[in-house]
Amino acid sequence: xxxxxxxxxxxxxxxEVVAVNDVSLSIKEGEVFGLVGPNGAGxxxxxxxxEGLRAPDSGSIRALGLDPVREADELHEKIGVQLQTTSIQPxxxxxxxxxxxxxxxxxxxxxxxxxxQTLSLEDKADSxxxxxxxxxxxxxxxxxxxxxxxxxxxFDEMSTGLDxxxxxxxxxxxxxxxxxxKTIFLTTHYMEEAEELCDRVGVIDYGKIIAxxxxxxxxxxxxxxxxxxxxTGDKDITAAEFGGLPAVGRAEKVxxxxxxxxxxxxxxxxxxxxxxxxxxFRLGDIRTEIPNLDDVFLALTGREMRx
Amino acid sequence: MRGLWQLAWNELKLNLxxxxxxxxxxxxxxxWLAFNALIFKQPIPGSGYxxxxxxxxxxPGTIGLVxxxxxxxxxxxxxxxxxxxxxxxxxxxxxxxxxxxxxxxAISQLAFAAAGIxxxxxxxxxxxxVQVLGSWLLFAGVTFLGMITFLAIxxxxxxxxxxxxxxxxxxxxxxxxxxxxxxxxxxxxILPAWLQPIAKALPLTPINTLLRDIVYGVQLKxxxxxxxxxxxxxxxxxxxxxxxxxx
Lengths: 307, 247
Description:
Chain A is an alpha/beta fold. Chain A contains 10 helices and 13 strands.
């Protein structure tokens, strides 16, 4: 696997504030890498240094083997960028924008206007950019990032401010782009977005990478328990009876039923059904709560991701 | 140079979609000339310009007005607006070169100013029977040089100004004295003697003076001033690219 982006001990300061503090990471070919953290954690500063928009104070960055600042033009030929807020000429039409941006590259797509279809913008080709909805603007931003058929794409907060449906559409797009074998570096402050899309996730807080792994490993590294909730109308049952079920650490009585804390919710569920059958009580409304990246962030920082 | 023509063509279309730009560069100069020509009818007596009708006297100054409004005002406003709106930032993550971007914007303004002048010509020729006694080719050539010079100065303003506000202040600081002193309204000969050298040093003055001499078919003098204009253009262009800021 080729390394596409390599950051070594990257530092960026703004006056007293250390926006990016000694970050080292590498992105491999074909993966979707997500930089996750709350607002102001340094995500945008880092991604923009890799894109060549800002120079690091110290440390080194290579993207596709190039120095992003000194070899910016060469790098920009090969990458696609969606900035946190994309603004283009307000009165430009969508079709014109795609044609214009394609003309700036040495090797644009043969039919850049085909992107209109890919991004469901066919009927917006003659609409002015300023008249588009947030989701449509974001799709135009993605289209512009794709006009040069880039090897690597950088998406900065691609779904921030979008409604849930538009966000889902963005996710489908990322998956489709990834399926073409392109490498994707994205930032987000939505943990579920990172879990849904990313092969590996770097958790960033106050400019430092505090964890870096696959979403699955990050979650399991917590050793956090899943919760199994269920309701039962049977008044005779006590919490202590569930202590013997596999993987159950402890059980608590709650309003209308019980909650079991378990290391393996699948095994617990199976045994719970069998136990209810044997013991002869009715199970109702079973729900499970599996730990996710939000819990990872909470465990690492002691704070919730969303203030 | 990739993308240059696309950039220029796009910006030209965007200019045409902006009602204010269209008004100030296309309609206003023609209206201004028509208004003055209808009110005053005759050149100022004793100014030496009685040979032709007043509309013909006004033509060079009005072209100066188009040069100011279309090529000089347009480009710094475009550059600073795009910088404030982070449109330039989007261009920055493409391989486009600074010089291509500035040149593309400049070419679009040039085409826009040229269109404005053609509209002006067509109307005043038909309605006021404006005459040019000298060479049309020379007339077009001096106009072109004037547009290039002011595009370059305008681009420099667009690169130096930190904001649209700052650009506006700089534009009007340059614009106003030229409006008064560069022979748009008044021949330089009627200005007080101490003001004349200052007026002559302004870059718009030689353009208007030469154009007016061509209109009246008189012997052209002080042609070295064309070299000064080319110098302004060169310095403006260099400053524009050297001081260019993406954000």
